[in-house]
Amino acid sequence: MRKTLLGLAAAALALSVSAPAIAQDKIKACFVYIGPKTDGGWTQAHDIGRQLVDKELGDKVETQYVESVPEGPDAERVIERFARSGCAIVFTTSFGYMDQTIAVASKFPDVKFEHATGYKTAENVTSYNSRFYEGRYIIGQIAAKMSKTGVAGYIASFPVPEVVQGINAFTLGAQSVNPDFKLKVIWVNTWHDAGKEADAAKALIDQGVDILTQHTDSAAPMQIAEERGIKAFGQAFDQIQAGPNAQLTAIVDTWGPYYVKRIQAVLDGTWKGGEATWDGLAEGILEMAPYTNMPDDMKAAAEETEAKIKSGELKPFTGPITKQDGTEWLKEGESADDPTLLGLNFYVKGVDDKLPN
Amino acid sequence: MGIAESILLTIATAATPLLIAAMGELVVERSGVLNLGVEGMMVMGAVCGFAAAALTGSPWMGVFGGILAGVVMSLLFAFLTLSIATNQVATGLSLTLLGLGLSGMIGESFVGSAGRKLPVLDLPVLSDLPLVGRLVFGQDPIFYMSIALTLGVSWFLFRTRAGLTLRSIGDSHSSAHALGISVIGYRYLAVMFGGACAGLAGAHLSLVYTPQWVENMTAGRGWIALALVVFASWRPLRVLAGAYLFGAVTIGQLHAQALGFGIPSQLLSSLPYLATIVVLVLISRNRRLTLMNTPASLGQPFVPER
User: Fold this and answer.
1) Hey, what domains does chain A have and what are their CATH numbers?
2) What ipTM goes with this model?
3) Which pTM was predicted?
């Protein structure tokens, strides 16, 4: 494995994938990353998963990755390069690689593809996702209990269904404690820009928010929360180091076991395309970091909610739920089905923001 | 601290790295050299600044480390473009790619480690004045450097003989050479100054703005600095205005979003770019003056005839 130099230019990206020759008996598993593998968030969580593959299947599998691949045409070139270079399976780890993954997959029917957090599949493409929103519901509850101002701030990246799910689940969790709880949302239109995330955090705090949560990839908002003496939730990765007094808990992505399972299936010849996997807290694809900086009774309540979600007793998107525009979404006792959630493009009532198109 | 004061402080923090990097590039371009490697030098400044601060325990060593990293990167550029006359555009772009990759490697072991923040100035009474107290008397040292830098560059370029010489080299290197001026020598110094500024701007990111190291943390700020120089038609005070305008609209649009006005966030996110370009184009609309300010030999390689 050689460290790939970050590339703005696709040429540099494509060149850096060229692999050393590998032994015949090993298969190659390849990963496309949206950010640097040490971003302290989303991509790092995937890379830790990849490292688990190295550790558990290292004698049969060789892993490769390319970092900081922009969504769009550049991604297609990188994915295609992987497919040509003999990868048995390619994991594309960002929503915005969806169409590119499908496009390349149709040209390479013998290569297997797995796309994270999307909704399209094909003969040789599966999609896999994590029910992050289960964690968001828990932190929404904690936020409503901890907040003195009754307003939380949400730093959002792009208006894709995964992010909208998170905002809605957070709001529903908070409303289950305090029906009047308010949520301010700022879209920074990037996954990874520490400075901009910090600016957004400061803007939210200046407007009276005393709990922060984010759907972007750096630990900068946590750091600002620590500096300004408010509370925050870690994203994708345990960020306690950045906010020893600020972090209440974090939604930690644990992709490793899934990657090991899927690559094992390739080795066994049991891998099947066209499937969509959507695991949650129960399957362990996401975990909650230790509940800290909160009173014991809140901690107990959070653990209870977590247990209920794991057992299936509590489903965050269960009626009665009203949409932001006041129309009914889910009736009493009715739970949202997966296709609806995967294409979610509206807010629930109580979100103080207009959803970008 | 009131909300207005807090917003002004946030704007100053957002504008400072842009201003410093742009001021360095302005001097480089005034000497007739186009260095597109600002982003690469800046990100190297960020990682080396962070590393130096973490290893020595002193954020001031971080500032020094950032500047040094920028200078070293710029020397590489200077050697290639000035001593062996390679294409400046291609070399600058490669410098950016090199900086982004190299910084990721250097910084790998520093990811997630605790950053050291430069202390802010704290004067009794003055720093506690309402509204402007913190803004004028309670900021980080790099902010004061950025203001001093702007005034210094302005004075140097337009009030000193060396500044006049530098500008004349930028306008016509052959004439300057014929007069016996060391074109290459001046350009080396200008490029190194640009590197030092880019390195300092990077150090600001990893020691003040967000005291941590994250790969690629400049996130395009070097390119914005480059654009500011051109749109400000190579005038230092206009660069200052542009950097602060950009910072103000960036922070303003975040606040507009948090207030929930219902304006599409994509439009708001593009506002800083639009506003800065429109305003700087308007103040630079005098064609004759703009032509006069444009370094005529910008980007052209110079090979002295023997």
Assistant:
1) 10-130+254-279 (3.40.50.2300), 132-245+286-352 (3.40.50.2300)
2) 0.88
3) 0.86
